[in-house]
Design a protein that fits this description.
The protein has about 550 residues and is mainly α. Helix content is about 80%, strand content about 0%. The chain is globular and about 65 Å long.
């Protein structure tokens, strides 16, 4: 299967998963709100397993596993013994780490919050006891999925989250049937029952469990089986651990930055009183979910497909082919990211209305989203360039340019915590993220160019400028269409009801995409032709 077709297969699973995840977030917002104390409590608790997972071995898995597994396939047993030992070792780490972090739930909740009342801390801690076991199954899912990716079986890894979202959606529907909805936080955090807590958080964890276990079916389908092997001595773990050390350092640095940002964002709660307009942790999480939709659908799918290919070319010492893969990946990512950014910025208010009923809350979330979307393209570029360094088995350089970004972000976050009014704090943090990832992308490209030489002949910059110009025209067309619906002011059609918002989102989005594709076809951009051709082939089959 070609890289384009592999990317489309993965993207199709990601599109469905993200659509269901979007629906889940909308239902969760209806159930417990977005700018409410209960929503922030659950937001912190449900994010904890992701944070701990990232600190332990998050970025290490892809940085180390795929190149090591590709290399191990040259062994007489096709790498089976090595994979069994390596996975047994990492699964063991995840198990004991999960037990320890679950027991430490009160400490972790306190660490990630600032200015919360004892009752809100108690609710977040109760949620955390149910959510932290997700850590083990996130790790298992990643391990099983990376082995599949290394064997070029990309689809299951991207489709498994669909099951997660289906299970979580079913749980939320059951919650709403039993307990009703509370989007504005009328119920005090002190009044939450144990059944409410366990239902919301327990079904979220059940979804993650199902996402991991379903990958065993994919393993069986392609004829591989995991046999736990605890004989770790002398099986060649040292090179993997050496490579992992820099990735682990990078992830720890990232999580320190994330910790500071979460603590600063959570402090906005102290100024909330009876207002629902002050964005905090939950609103930041919703904005991040929307931000990650185009990134997950396009960038992750494209980079995952190219990563295995680049790793193989590096092993063959064909750096010229590796550079070609990288350039093609960056051009394709740029093609999608610029129109996604433009579309979501234009539609930020109607999109936010889907999650929040009151206009002031809608405006608060929309402003956070606009600030965050500015950084989508450099964020996606960084992701692809990181995979290039990983293919080169260089985990030190990503550590360097990530630490620069984190240092800038921590400095800016602490400064904003003192100078920026609480109602604008999360917006400021989102703008800061966009700025720092832009600096990170520029530094990563400079360091990559020093390592492998110029990519100038591949026309990345000129193509990106073409895409940006076409997206700007599409944005103008979209903004004009949005104003035909009455704009986005208080009482406007686009922000009056959820149904109205969906209608406007679809109409304006369709206009913008149509204008964008038309302009790119007139400019004869070959990435558009390749993507359309592959999509037609998949649809025919």
């Amino acid at each position: 299967m070609s890289v384009v077709k592999s990317s489309l297969v993965m993207a199709s699973g990601t599109v469905l998963s993200r659509a269901l995840g979007f629906a889940r977030s909308v239902l969760l917002a209806m159930a417990i709100g977005v700018t409410t104390n209960a929503a922030d409590a659950f937001g912190v608790a449900n994010q904890l397993p992701n944070n701990v997972y990232a600190i332990i071995v998050g970025g290490v898995l892809q940085a180390v596993l795929v190149p090591q597994i590709v290399k191990a396939r040259a062994h007489k047993d096709g790498g089976k013994g090595y994979v069994d030992k390596l996975l047994t070792f990492i699964i063991t780490i995840f198990f004991f780490t999960t037990v320890a972090t679950t027991l430490a739930a009160p400490v972790l909740v306190s660490l990630y919050t600032s200015g919360w009342s004892p009752a809100q801390l108690a609710l977040a801690t109760a949620f955390a006891y149910w959510c932290l076991p997700q850590l083990f199954f996130y790790g298992l899912y990643s391990l099983l999925g990376e082995v599949l990716n290394a064997r070029s079986a990309f689809g299951p890894f991207m489709w498994a989250p669909v099951l997660n979202n289906v299970v979580s959606l079913a749980g939320l529907i059951g919650y709403v049937v039993m307990f009703g909805t509370d989007p504005t936080g009328i119920q005090n955090v002190e009044d939450w029952s144990q059944l409410q807590i366990s239902w919301i958080a327990g079904t979220a964890t059940l979804g993650v469990i199902s996402q991991a276990l379903i990958l065993f079916v994919a393993w069986k389908k392609i004829g591989i089986k995991l046999n736990l092997n605890f004989k770790w001595r002398g099986f060649g773990l040292r090179p993997a651990l050496k490579a992992a050390s820099w990735s682990l350092g990078m992830v720890v640095a990232t999580q320190i930055g994330g910790l500071v940002q979460t603590v600063v964002a959570s402090s906005a709660v102290s100024a909330r009183s009876n207002s629902v307009a002050i964005a905090s942790v939950a609103a930041a999480a919703i904005a991040w979910l929307i931000f990650m939709l185009p990134h997950s659908v396009a960038t992750v799918s494209i980079a995952t497909a190219y990563f295995t290919k680049m790793s193989a070319h590096v092993q063959e010492n064909r750096i010229d082919l590796m550079k070609s893969d990288l350039a093609q990946g960056l051009r394709t990512i740029s093609l999608i990211s610029v129109i996604a950014s433009a579309t979501i910025i234009v539609l930020a208010y109607p999109i936010s209305r889907i999650f929040i009923g009151e206009y002031v809350g809608t405006a608060a979330l929309a402003n956070v989203l606009i600030a965050l979307m500015v950084g989508l393209l450099p964020f996606s570029f960084v992701f692809m360039m990181q995979r290039s360094f990983y293919a080169l088995e260089d985990t030190r350089t990503p550590f360097v340019f990530t630490c620069v970004q984190i240092a800038l972000h921590i400095t800016g976050s602490l400064t904003m915590s003192v100078l920026v009014p609480r109602e604008w704090l999360v917006v400021g943090l989102s703008l800061l993220t966009s700025f720092t990832v832009t600096v990170q992308a520029a530094l990563a490209y400079w360091l990559l160019r020093k390592r492998i030489g110029s990519l100038g002949q591949h026309q990345i910059a000129s193509n990106t400028l073409k895409f940006a110009a076409a997206a700007a025209v599409a944005a103008a067309a979209g903004w004009g269409t949005l104003n035909l619906f009455g704009g986005v002011g208080p009482g406007a059609f686009a922000v009056k009801t959820i149904v109205n918002s969906l209608i406007v989102d679809l109409a304006v989005g369709a206009v913008m995409v149509a204008v964008y594709l038309l302009l790119l076809k007139l400019l004869r951009v070959r990435e558009v032709e390749n993507a359309l051709s592959s999509a037609k082939g998949i649809l025919r089959r």
